[in-house]
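Today's session is about reading a structure prediction critically. Students often jump straight to the picture, but the first step is always the sequence itself: look for stretches that repeat, for charged clusters, for runs of hydrophobic residues. Only then move on to the predicted structure, which in these notes is written as discrete structure tokens rather than atom positions. Here is the chain we will use throughout the hour.
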Amino acid sequence: MTHPTIIAPSVLAADWGRLHEQVRAVQDAGADWLHLDVMDGHLVENISFGPAFCDCVAKAAKVPLDVHLMITRPDTFWQRFAKFAKMITIHVEAACDVAATLRAIRGAGIQCGITLKPGTPFSLIEPFLGDVDLVLVMTVEPGFGGQPFIPEMLEKVRAAREIRSARGLAYRIEVDGGINAATGKSSIEAGADTLVAGTSVFAAPDMAAAIRAIRGAE
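Below is the predicted structure for this chain, in token form.
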């Protein structure tokens, strides 16, 4: 199965002092989703924002919210994002029953995703692939924006595409980290259909042109 390309700008890279203005601007520029990176300082070496900030984004958002929980215990926290999230993605490295947490998210009527750090073997997420709506391949070490793209992670994108085809599954394949027009093109060629872009969109002089370039229209 193939999906139309979705561009999901990462609010982590926005100017939070002008949050609602930035949300409206990036939506007007052509964003399909907004990506929210929630970090707890344990699973990744940084702290970003929590449910209250995401709720604030939701007040200005007209597009679906894609929540990436980079937290150790998503099983005890995902419910706090349930009222506004279209998609909640959790890490295979989380200290919880990953399968049960994915079932609970889906049971609440929310799409669920699985992800893994660059150093984690793809084989660890394979048992969950039949039970998710999205596979997120981190193309940088999660925790900080503005890092360079790790091209070796495209092997995981290809693996996700091959397994989806072989097993007749329908999940989206998302990439996050160092995405711009060039890396977006190589990611799409490898099988990605959902691209998270932070700095390359929010720091661009023309956000609409940046989104079109990543999508491949330019």
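Discussion point for the tutorial: The CA atoms of residues 35 and 205 lie 20 Å apart.
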